């Protein structure tokens, strides 16, 4: 074969190969553009989620602060309730003592009434 024929064959094959390579690379470029667009959208979505997360964290801090105040109030109420329960217990003891004394007084009055002589 002549060198020019070989050069022509190589040129035709080279052009064909480069054409296929260009087509392949064009597909890759299109995919890369699509991926860049998608990544940009994902970045925006991530930013929106980050903003929402900051808001949620602030709400959680506010709820924690409120919960702390509620817990402190509950502790105060429990302390007061304990004091009231103790006062009720002491009042119950006083009532028991008074009932005992009243029973004794009634017994004494009953004994005294039986010992009286009608006039």
What characteristics describe this protein?
95% helix, mainly alpha, 119 residues
Put simply, the count of helices is 1
Structural class label: mainly alpha
**Extended strand count:** 0
| Gyration radius from CA atoms, angstroms | 50 Å
Q: Detail the poorly predicted runs.
A: none
Question: What is the quaternary state of this protein?
Answer: single chain
Give the N-terminus to C-terminus distance in angstroms.
168 Å
Structure description:
This protein is an all-alpha fold. The termini are far apart.
Summarize the structure.
95% of the residues lie in helices and 0% in strands. It has 119 residues and is mainly α.
Secondary-structure map with pairings?
Elements: H1 3-115
């Amino acid at each position: 074969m002549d060198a020019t024929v070989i050069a022509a064959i190589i040129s035709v094959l080279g052009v064909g190969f480069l054409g296929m390579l260009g087509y392949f690379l064009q597909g890759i470029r299109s995919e890369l553009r699509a991926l860049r667009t998608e990544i940009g959208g994902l970045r925006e979505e991530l930013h929106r989620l980050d903003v929402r997360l900051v808001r949620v964290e602030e709400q959680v801090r506010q709820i924690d602060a409120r919960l702390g105040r509620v817990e402190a109030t509950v502790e105060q109420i429990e302390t007061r309730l304990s004091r009231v329960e103790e006062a009720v217990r002491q009042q119950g003891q006083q009532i028991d003592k008074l009932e005992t004394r009243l029973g004794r007084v009634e017994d004494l009055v009953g004994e005294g009434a039986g010992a009286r002589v009608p006039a």
